[in-house]
Amino acid sequence: MVTHSTLTLAKMSATTLSSPPSSLSAPLQGLGSKLPLRSTFTFNIRRSSFPQLRASANNLPSSLDSGSSTELDAVSSFSAIVPDTVIFDDFQRFPPTAATVSSSLLLGILSLPDTIFKSAVDTALADSDCASIGKSDARLSCFYDKALVNCGADLAKLVPGRVSTEVDSRLAYDTHGIIHKVHDLLKLYNDIEVPAERLLFKIPSTWQGIEAARVLESEGIQTHLTFVYSFAQASAAAQAGASVIQIFVGRIRDWARNHSGDSEIETALKRGEDPGLALVTKAYNYIHKYGHKSKLMAAAVRNKQDLYSLLGVDYIIAPLKVLESLKDSVTTPDEKYAFTRRLSPQSAATYEFSKEELVKWDQRSLTSAMGPCAVELLTAGIDGYSNQANRVEDLFGKIWPPPNV
C-alpha cells in the first residue's frame, strides 16, 4: 500500500540523482544535490519502491543507435540526468534516488503548520542536550544541526541513494570550522544509525572549503564542492580529491550577459563558446586527463541544447520542463540528428592545457586566478545560504521551547 503526505515547501528544492553509467565507476552512485532558493511547489511524498532513471550499458557509444524510445532514454545513455526541484508527484516519471537537506528545507518546514518533516524539527527542538546549553547562540546552533540531521535521516528512509547535507555557509572561510562541523554532523547521523556511506557534505568552494574537503576526503568522508564558477576552483577541487564538483552553467552565462572584465569568460566568448559550457568541458577534460577521482556535475542547465552540449559529463541537473520535453519526444531510427557524446575520457586525453593552468594551487594563486564572475557568484551563494541559516535560527529562537516541553 502506498501512503501519501502532501506538503508545500517554500523556497526549497529536492534534487535527485540517477545512477551514472556503470563504466564511470562512480563511488557516489545516488548523490543528491540542491540549488538554492527555488520557488514554491507541491510535493506528494510516496512511501513506495522507487524505479530509477538509469544510464545504460558498460560501454558508452560515441553516438546513439536507434534503440531508444524517447530523447530522455537517449541522453541518459551518456550522462546521469538529475531532475532539479523535483515535484514528488512525478515519482513514476522522474523517480528520485537521493536528496539534499539544507537551510532552505528547514525554512520550508517552519513556514508550514504541518508537514511530514515537522516531527524531525520538533524532536530537534526538544533535545535535552541542546536545551541544556546556556549560551543562546550555541543552543540555537545545536538545534539547527539536530534539525538538519533529523530531516536527513527521514529523507534517507525515503530515497535509496545518498543524502547531501549542507554545511553551514557561515563557516565558508574557516577550514577548521568546516571540518569540525562535518565531524559533528557525522556523529549525529551515527547516533541515529544513518551510515556514513549514505551521506555527502556540501561545502562552498572557497580556498578554505577546498582545503577542508581535502582533509575530509583523506578521512574517507565524501564531499560535494559547490559554487564553482572558474577553472581555478574546479581544478583545485579536483586536486583536493572532492567526490563531486558542481558547476552552474546558466549562472555563468547570466553573469557574462550583464558584465565584462573576466578574462576567462572573455576568452570563451572570443572562441564563440558559451562560457558556462566551456568551463564544464575544460574541467571535465582536466579531471579525466590527469586521473582525478572527482565526478563533475553540471547544474543550472536551462534548455535541451545545453543538455545536448554536455552529454558525457557525469551528472546533469535539468529542470522539469526540459525533462518533460525529453520524456515526451520520441526518437526514431531515421532521426535527422544523432545524439553524440560531447565529453569523454578519450577526447580529454587530447585536450591541451597551458602551463599556467597546470599549477598546484595554493590560496594565493587560487585567489589571483579567480575572476570577477567567480568572486561575485561565490560570494552571492555564500551570503544567500548564510542568510537562510540565520533566519532558521531566528525562527527557532522564537518558537523554543515548544509547547510540549
From TrEMBL:
Gene3D superfamilies: Aldolase class I (3.20.20.70)
UniProt pathway annotation: Carbohydrate degradation; pentose phosphate pathway; D-glyceraldehyde 3-phosphate and beta-D-fructose 6-phosphate from D-ribose 5-phosphate and D-xylulose 5-phosphate (non-oxidative stage): step 2/3
Enzyme Commission no: 2.2.1.2
MF-aspect GO terms: transaldolase activity
GO annotation, cellular component aspect: cytoplasm
Keyword Oxidoreductase recorded: no
One GO BP annotation of this record: pentose-phosphate shunt
Keyword Cytoplasm (UniProt): yes
Keywords, ordered alphabetically: Cytoplasm, Pentose shunt, Schiff base
UniProt record similarity statement: Belongs to the transaldolase family. Type 1 subfamily.
Protein name: transaldolase
Organism: Spinacia oleracea
High-level lineage: Eukaryota, Viridiplantae, Streptophyta, Embryophyta, Tracheophyta
